[in-house]
Amino acid sequence: MLGTTGTSWPSTGKGLELNYRSDLNGGLLQAYDRGGSLWGTLDINASTVQVGGSPGNFNVGGSVGIGTTTHQTRLDISGAMLVASATTPPSPTSGSGLYLGYFGSSNQASISSYDWSSLQSRPMTINASTVTIGGNLSVSGTLSKGAGSFKIDHPLDPTNKYLYHSFVESPDMKNIYDGVATTDDDGFATITMPVWFEALNRDFRYQLTVIGTGTWARARVSREIESNRFTIETDVPNTKVSWQVTGIRKDAYANAHRIMVEEEKSSNDKGTCMHPEACVSR
Description:
Blueprint: E1 5-6, E2 14-21, E3 26-33, E4 38-39, E5 64-66, E6 75-77, E7 85-86, E8 96-103, E9 108-115, E10 120-121, E11 149-153, E12 162-166, E13 174-182, E14 188-192, H1 197-200, E15 201-211, E16 219-226, E17 229-234, E18 240-249, H2 252-256
Parallel strand pairs: 1-2, 5-6, 7-8
Antiparallel strand pairs: 2-3, 3-4, 8-9, 9-10, 11-12, 13-18, 14-17, 15-18, 16-17
């Protein structure tokens, strides 16, 4: 065992080297086989191995296996992994990579694919047959999908069945509003929309359906949306009317991120299909 300061390496023999290397500016613990020019295997059997310092660093030039001796990647973990709390997220000044952590300052876990040189997020791909999220999912950007639905316990048989409904979709960023109103003795009903309605929407479309029995009645929109309200008129007073209004989003985010209805595939994607059943000869 070497325990003195030095920069030289033994030229022969096998053993455990414990040394302080001035060229490395640090201590060195290694198992070596100088004759075979190979690193040996170093087994440390202990309930806890602690790296001190403030903070302590543990650098590995090769690969690390946890719970396995047959690791084939830089870090191979067999079993569960616990990421403990940190005060704040890491903030390197350069480089890029994937960071996984739990940060006590924001009381939330974080998975980030990030380039610290340009201070920009980078794409991250998750390949799995199913990804399950037990709570709420918040997406600050645009969500693209092959299909969508809600899934709930079936209201009539909640312990044995599920109930699904598909999303209602459009080539536009379209919002849908509806309700039921009854015209007054003069045949008018004014519908008041939320105060933010015209700030959010444009290009309004209307649908009216008369409800009830007895005398046939006609209905029309006699006054279109202005100051977040519109007026229905029927030729028979006191008529019940189902109404629907749609609008296309015009908020700042929507204006900056319109959905592209058709798009040419990239050169890498041409000749392939996201869904094999779509690659049927036409």
